[in-house]
Amino acid sequence: MFVQDDLQQRWWALEARLMEQFGKKPDLEAVLFLIGMQETGFIRDKISKEQKQDLMHVAVCTVLAPGGYFILEGKDEDGWPHFKQLKEIPVMGLAEQEAFLKDFVLLYFEQQYREVE
User: In sequence order, what DSSP letters do the residues of 72-102 get, joined into one string?
Assistant: First the structure.
């Protein structure tokens, strides 16, 4: 349970940081959407449901890459990254899946902040 508590504490800290920046508390889906926008540079006033899904897919691949699940193969002519899946994502329940993703999202932000400093 300690590991789960630590994850929750770190997630709340990230939420607080993002809330300061955007004025709104983000859920996991919103955080993935932001990561996708950051990774692609795709920022528009109007974004279709399909584009939102594509941005979140880019985010999931990006955050899971350090775990060896995906590797960036390159970018297309529009600058969108394309990934190759290297190994299967473990089958897990919804709560476990959310914790799994949150852990990798937190690692992503830790790396981003390290690069800025």
Answer: EEEE-TTS-EEEEE-SPPPP--HHHHHHHHH
Q: Over the stretch 60-104, which tens digit does the pLDDT of each residue have?
A: 999 999 999 999 999 999 889 999 999 999 999 999 999 999 999
Cβ-contact 75, 81 below 8 angstroms: yes
The label of the residue with tokens 């969108």 reads 80
Please check the confidence at residue 1 and state whether its pLDDT lies above 50.
no
- The burial of 32, by beta-carbon neighbours within 10 Å (0-12 exposed, 13-18 middle, 19 or more buried), is given as buried
The C-alpha atoms of residue 90 and residue 75 are separated, in whole angstroms, by 27
**Beta carbons of 76 and 42 less than 8 angstroms apart:** no
Do residues 35 and 108 touch, judged by C-beta distance below 8 A? yes
